[in-house]
């Protein structure tokens, strides 16, 4: 029995040290050297204080801000510890009711807006944490934000254009607007 137990324990201790200590430290060190911003959580800092991450959405509900995609995380929106979608299919009455409620909220916040409502303003993302909206979703909200903040529409439009990111490497994904970064820039407008 001793001849079997000793190699097993030795191998257990060795693999624990390698996979539990050496490997994580090496990967973290490489990540911090090669991608320091991403390895630190892609934090957005304003006035010396972290206000969020460019990778995780935030729940903006005040009409003077651009709103992000709805979040299906619980118990509150954009809960990073509970990432996940609602898993409701297109025939689920709860999903239909949720989308109708979101459409009603958008129309109530901006009753004069006759633009078609972009899908990403009424459908939650798969993770529930998406920090981006489409340029069409930002365009839909420009009039409301400009009116409430008493800003020229063109100034808000320019800000949206400045914060519209293209496709990754010019190929992957779709153009997008990071809502937190846009709202921070919006707050800095006078």
Could you please describe the fold and organization of this structure?
- This protein is mainly alpha-helical.
- It has helices at residues 2-34, 36-39, 93-109, 135-149, 153-162, 179-188; strands at residues 43-46, 49-53, 132-133, 164-165, 176-178.
- The chain has two domains: 1-40; 41-188, no CATH class.
- Helix content is 47%, strand content 8%.
- A three-stranded antiparallel β-sheet has the order 3-5-4. The protein has a two-stranded antiparallel sheet with strand order 1-2.
- β1 and β2 form a beta hairpin.
- The protein is elongated, with a radius of gyration of 22 Å.
- The termini are far apart.
Topology overview:
Blueprint: H1 2-34, H2 36-39, E1 43-46, E2 49-53, H3 93-109, E3 132-133, H4 135-149, H5 153-162, E4 164-165, E5 176-178, H6 179-188
Name the descriptors.
mainly alpha
In short:
The protein has six helices and five strands. By secondary structure, the protein is mostly helical. Helix 4 (135-149) packs antiparallel against helix 5 (153-162).
